[in-house]
Amino acid sequence: MGVHEVLKNITWLGHDGFFIKGDGKVIVIDPFQLKECEPADLILITHEHYDHCSPDDVKKVQKPSTVIVTEADSAKKLTGDIRVVAPGDKLTVSGIPIEVVPAYNTNKKFHPKRNGWLGFIVTVDGVRLYHAGDTDLIPEMDSLKADIALLPVSGTYVMTAEEAVEAAKRIKPEIAIPMHYGAIVGSAEDALRFSDALAGTCEVVVLSR
């Protein structure tokens, strides 16, 4: 399946939350302030902050067979079939290959590298989808390979739109999607700046809720 076909099966849930259908599975990443959402086969949680690891929102999409993949801090707040991972890990859950990558701040203190918090690369329908988590522009991005990149753009706790542009240039995805705005911090203007700056470099798709 091509990148644009997979794109049709990606729904932005707001903030850093995404709903993805692929390979016959439902994947939900960082659900927060959910309204309605199908139950998930796989839930990925990037780190323990309340707007990413929300036990109430997880329960809304969790079923008995759901597998949760997350780091140790978040795992303590959740129940069910939980796989605790760290940056550098690789695993396959429900037929979905998952690569666990670092996500951390370099010039602020909210997401220290020592915490071992996460970004994810999942492969669905043959397409590599990178969810950056809450991160700054980090050296590890130089070696990431992704067809679709979900990148934070708000600044304050994560990359600014301008830093996210540089991240996209390093990762070289076919499609970049801005996230981490419109809820806690950041606005649609950040997404627009990101999109405008990447014109002619890669396709940017600004999803609406």
How would you portray this structure in words?
The chain has 209 residues and is α/β, with parallel strands linked by helices. It has a single domain, classed as Ribonuclease Z/Hydroxyacylglutathione hydrolase-like (Metallo-beta-lactamase, Chain A, 4-Layer Sandwich). Helices cover 18% and strands 30% of the residues. Helix 4 (161-171) packs across helix 5 (188-197).
Give the topology.
Elements: H1 3-7, E1 10-14, E2 17-22, E3 25-29, E4 42-44, H2 55-61, E5 67-70, H3 72-75, E6 81-84, E7 90-93, E8 96-102, E9 118-124, E10 127-131, E11 148-152, H4 161-171, E12 175-179, H5 188-197, E13 203-204
Give a brief outline of the structure.
The chain has 209 residues and is of the alpha/beta class. It is 18% helix and 30% strand. The chain has one domain (3-204): Ribonuclease Z/Hydroxyacylglutathione hydrolase-like (Metallo-beta-lactamase, Chain A, 4-Layer Sandwich), CATH 3.60.15.
Using only CA atoms, what is the Rg? 15 Å
- Estimated share of beta-strand residues: 25-35%
**Kindly, what is the distance between the CA atoms of the first and last residues, rounded to a whole number of angstroms?**
24 Å
Number of helices: 5
What is the correct CATH architecture?
4-Layer Sandwich
Q: What is the fold-level CATH name, i.e. the topology?
A: Metallo-beta-lactamase, Chain A
Reading off the top of the CATH hierarchy, the class is best stated as Alpha Beta
Helix content: 10-25%
